[in-house]
């Protein structure tokens, strides 16, 4: 990465050559997003904000809320929820729960995430919040907190109803939040290839789990209005990507053939990212990025750095093309406290901003006194 000194001005910035990004082969889908997990950067996208029916990928939010309650100690994997007649009566894909039975959260999560049981999702919703309505309200509140601006839920399982919608970008954000906030739960549930309940053996609809050993989760879904959706994540050589495809559909093919096609399309998206991009650490947490002048301080300058290590995802072979500059206030006056935000670090690749992070003081600088 190019070094810098001081704050950059537009007049002093030399023209940069265009960044060469390998083109993504055409994907037969209504929308898609490829996101780097560590940095959150979008590496490829088509209609990423388009509101579409999420189908059973809705269950990602249901899982998120259940994981959240487990982490907070409100419930555990051994907690048992009662299967209501309403939950038992849910249509579509099912875990095949028995009405009136009591089932552990552990098994309900497996039944929801592997065979995509709508009955399991409803049982979890009623058990956590007391009613479907209360749980859906919490789903929408959580969506707002996570910045899922194109998402609105109407049920815990994704059965089509007016007002239910999400986007490829929102599904990528939600997937990233699940992996980041609940890594143990992610590892425990999302890579399961099959699940048996009441002597009924069912396979995971995420066929990428069989096709690609680097894929370790998330969730597919289908609704006739959109087609086949899949949020998937894979890790290779320390780099994790999240690929979301919405609306992959071969109308004349069988459901089984469509799920295989969905895996191929999403797999192509992930392969593109791994083959053409790499993640680099740009700065360590606490590393001095620049020493800024301080007025009226005991020291003339204060070292500025980042609270957290900064990574950037760039096309392979183009790390040296990264440019960085700082944005500082017109004046910095003592006293300065360690950790105090002062300005920003901006990292660009060509004309595109890769990252903009707040700089903080790495040490104190007391106000100079004559006495």
Automatic annotation (TrEMBL):
Domain (Peptidase S11 D-Ala-D-Ala carboxypeptidase A C-terminal): residue spans on this chain: 277-367
Keywords: Carboxypeptidase, Cell shape, Cell wall biogenesis/degradation, Hydrolase, Peptidoglycan synthesis, Protease, Signal
Active site feature: 56, 59, 116
Pfam families named in the record: PBP5_C, Peptidase_S11
E.C. code: 3.4.16.4
Reaction catalysis annotation: Preferential cleavage: (Ac)2-L-Lys-D-Ala-|-D-Ala. Also transpeptidation of peptidyl-alanyl moieties that are N-acyl substituents of D-alanine
Gene Ontology terms for molecular function: serine-type D-Ala-D-Ala carboxypeptidase activity
Pathway in which this enzyme or protein is active: Cell wall biogenesis; peptidoglycan biosynthesis
InterPro entries: Beta-lactam/transpept-like (IPR012338), Peniciliin-bd_prot_C_sf (IPR015956), Peptidase_S11 (IPR018044), Peptidase_S11_C (IPR012907), Peptidase_S11_C_sf (IPR037167), Peptidase_S11_N (IPR001967)
Binding-site residues, substrate: 219
Alphabetized SMART domains for the sequence: PBP5_C
Function: Removes C-terminal D-alanyl residues from sugar-peptide cell wall precursors.
PANTHER family recorded: D-ALANYL-D-ALANINE CARBOXYPEPTIDASE, TRAFFICKING PROTEIN PARTICLE COMPLEX SUBUNIT 12
Protein name per the record: serine-type D-Ala-D-Ala carboxypeptidase
Provenance organism: Salinisphaera hydrothermalis (strain C41B8)
């Amino acid at each position: 990465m190019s070094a810098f000194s001081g704050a950059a001005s537009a007049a002093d910035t030399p023209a940069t050559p265009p960044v060469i990004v390998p083109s993504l082969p055409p994907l037969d889908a209504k929308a898609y997003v490829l996101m780097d997990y560590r940095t959150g950067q979008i590496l490829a996208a088509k209609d990423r904000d388009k509101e579409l029916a999420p189908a059973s990928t809705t269950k990602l939010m249901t899982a998120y809320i259940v994981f959240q309650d487990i982490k907070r100690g409100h419930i555990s994997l051994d907690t048992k929820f009662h299967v209501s007649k309403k939950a038992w009566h849910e249509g579509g894909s099912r875990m095949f729960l028995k009405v009136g039975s009591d089932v552990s959260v552990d098994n309900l999560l497996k039944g929801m995430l592997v065979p995509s049981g709508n009955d399991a999702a409803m049982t979890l919703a009623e058990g956590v919040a007391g009613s479907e309505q209360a749980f859906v309200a919490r789903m929408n509140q959580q969506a707002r907190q996570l910045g899922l601006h194109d998402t609105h839920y109407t049920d815990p399982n994704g059965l089509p109803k007016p007002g239910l919608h999400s986007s490829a970008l929102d599904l990528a954000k939600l997937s990233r939040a699940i992996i980041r906030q609940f890594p143990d739960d992610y590892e425990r549930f999302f890579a399961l290839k099959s699940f048996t309940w009441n002597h009924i053996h069912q396979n995971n609809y995420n066929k990428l789990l069989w096709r690609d050993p680097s894929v370790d989760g998330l969730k597919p879904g289908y609704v006739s209005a959109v087609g086949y959706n899949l949020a998937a994540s894979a890790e290779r050589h320390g780099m994790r990507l999240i690929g979301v495809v919405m609306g992959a559909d071969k109308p004349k093919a069988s459901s089984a053939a469509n799920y295989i096609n969905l895996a191929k399309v999403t797999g192509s998206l992930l392969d593109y990212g791994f083959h053409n991009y790499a993640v680099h650490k740009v700065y360590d947490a606490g590393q001095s990025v620049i020493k800024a002048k301080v007025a009226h301080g005991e020291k003339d300058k204060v070292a500025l750095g980042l609270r957290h290590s900064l990574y950037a995802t760039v096309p392979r072979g183009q790390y040296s093309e990264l440019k960085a500059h700082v944005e500082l206030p017109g004046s910095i006056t003592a006293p300065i406290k360690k950790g105090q935000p002062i300005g920003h670090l901006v990292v660009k690749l060509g004309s595109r901003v890769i990252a903009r992070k707040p700089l903080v003081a790495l040490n104190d600088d007391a106000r100079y006194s004559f006495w």
